[in-house]
């Protein structure tokens, strides 16, 4: 008998197949048992008819939630199913019976579900979010590699902070101090000077004591860096990239978006180019909306970003922030040194910043001046200064936070559901 998966069973209509999976749920009448089966690739309904096989019908009724099993059956078309098929069951082989599975179809509190994250992942909703995350990652690699970017892996253990902050996780590296990376950007700049256009994809860590729905302690970043690239050219790459990953999810995750109840009309509007507003103009907009407590030079918080985003139906770039608010490596605007050539991309619907990027300082004297202003240790950062000494070129880059992007595209309220095993202020397990 043909052994297949649920997702591949669409190609097996009219055939007898065997599927290895788990019992997600079940219901039965006096004559028919409906088995909701999952195997990781998808979900399918198995139908057992009492009149056809009394013994198998009783066996189906006795199955417990999350029991693992092999199911044999005939694949039949069914327009009511998201996959368009169902399984007419002809055989059931129990592999392992699950007893007292803790996550039942009833409502459970968030902390309970987080304590059981290792099995909460099996639920239909979490499965859908993880599949969307996977599609965004797949589409990311396709986007950059199709455009001749080279994937480069940045180190996780570093001797310095990428942005000069103190929100770092400290560890010992034999007899030296080391820190968990908060960004691979500085290393991507070095790689761009060797390979032209590069991107990294890896975990980053922020020792920020925040409990908001937008924050994780450990999260994943996509960080492209481009030599011979202006700030304007970088913005064009960013909006094209975001457009492409949204379209990839729309094309390849229709079942998952439907499972989550996502309004796809909103996503269909996400097409480049994106609107742009300067920090100064955004501040004026906030004042019009009644935010009288924020002045030029103050950073925007979540309520401010949400209010700005509400004025647009696409992601919006907020550009040219005050120099004092941004990292030491950002390039000043040549027409106004009080602001830098940078942009934050704010997602619609209150999801906040998903990208931060800028042109980088490529002038050696100006970078040395920034080192002094920010009190950076020349010995620790000497290699970064070398990039301005030996063949410096204009370059720019950005970082996209994967979990916030998954949350926005999938319509998930809290980022803790967008990573398999979230690390939060009060949570290091499971």
From TrEMBL:
Ranges for the Aminoacyl-transfer RNA synthetases class-II family profile domain?
A: 130-430
Record's InterPro entries? Answer: Aa-tRNA-synt_II, aa-tRNA-synth_II, aa-tRNA-synth_II/BPL/LPL, Asn-tRNA-ligase, Asp/Asn-tRNA-synth_IIb, NA-bd_OB-fold, NA-bd_OB_tRNA
Predominant subcellular localization, coarse grouping = cytoplasm
Q: Where in the cell is it found?
A: Cytoplasm
Q: Which reaction does it catalyse?
A: tRNA(Asn) + L-asparagine + ATP = L-asparaginyl-tRNA(Asn) + AMP + diphosphate + H(+)
Q: Which GO terms describe its biological process?
A: asparaginyl-tRNA aminoacylation
Say yes or no: keyword Protein biosynthesis present.
yes
Q: Which NCBIfam families match?
A: asnS, PRK03932.1, PRK05159.1
> Which PANTHER family does this one have?
ASPARAGINE--TRNA LIGASE, MITOCHONDRIAL-RELATED, ASPARTYL/LYSYL-TRNA SYNTHETASE
- What is the designated name of this protein? Asparagine--tRNA ligase
């Amino acid at each position: 008998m043909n052994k297949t998966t649920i997702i591949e069973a669409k190609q097996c209509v009219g055939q007898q197949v065997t599927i290895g999976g788990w019992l997600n749920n079940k219901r039965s009448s006096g004559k028919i048992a409906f088995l909701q089966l999952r195997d990781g690739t998808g979900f399918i309904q198995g139908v057992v008819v009492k009149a056809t096989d009394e013994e198998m019908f009783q066996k189906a009724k006795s199955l417990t939630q999350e029991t693992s099993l092999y199911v044999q059956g005939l694949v039949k078309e069914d327009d009511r199913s998201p996959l368009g098929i169902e399984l007419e069951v002809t055989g059931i082989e129990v592999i392992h019976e699950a007893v007292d599975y803790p996550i039942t179809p009833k409502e459970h509190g968030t902390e309970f579900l987080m304590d059981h994250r290792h099995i909460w992942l099996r639920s239909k909703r979490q499965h859908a979010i993880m599949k969307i995350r996977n599609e965004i990652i797949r589409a990311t690699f396709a986007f950059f590699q199709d455009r001749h970017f080279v994937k480069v892996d940045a180190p996780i253990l570093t001797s310095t902070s990428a942005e000069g902050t103190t929100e770092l996780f400290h560890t010992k590296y034999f007899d030296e101090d080391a820190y968990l990376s908060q960004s691979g950007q500085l290393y991507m700049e070095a790689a761009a000077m060797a390979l032209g256009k590069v991107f990294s994809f890896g975990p980053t860590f922020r020792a920020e004591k925040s409990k908001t729905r937008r924050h994780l302690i450990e999260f994943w970043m996509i960080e492209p860096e481009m030599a011979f690239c202006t700030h304007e050219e970088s913005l064009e790459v960013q909006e094209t990239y975001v457009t492409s990953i949204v379209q990839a999810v729309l094309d390849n995750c229709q079942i998952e978006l439907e499972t989550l109840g996502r309004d796809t009309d909103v996503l269909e509007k996400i097409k480049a180019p994106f609107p742009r507003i300067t920090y100064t103009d955004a501040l004026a907009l906030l004042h019009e909306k009644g935010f009288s407590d924020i002045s030029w030079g103050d950073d925007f918080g979540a309520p401010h970003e949400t209010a700005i985003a509400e004025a647009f139906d696409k992601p919006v770039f907020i550009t040219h922030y005050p120099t004092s608010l941004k990292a030491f490596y950002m390039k000043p605007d040549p027409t106004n040194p009080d602001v830098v050539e940078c942009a934050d991309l704010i997602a619609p619907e209150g999801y906040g910043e998903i990208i931060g990027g800028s042109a980088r300082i490529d002038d050696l004297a100006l970078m040395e001046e920034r080192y002094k202003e920010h009190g950076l240790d020349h010995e620790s950062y000497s290699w970064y200064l070398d990039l301005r000494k030996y063949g410096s070129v204009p370059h720019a880059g950005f970082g996209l936070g994967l979990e916030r992007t998954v949350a926005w595209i999938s319509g998930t309220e809290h980022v803790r559901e967008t990573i398999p095993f979230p690390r939060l202020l009060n949570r290091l397990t499971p």
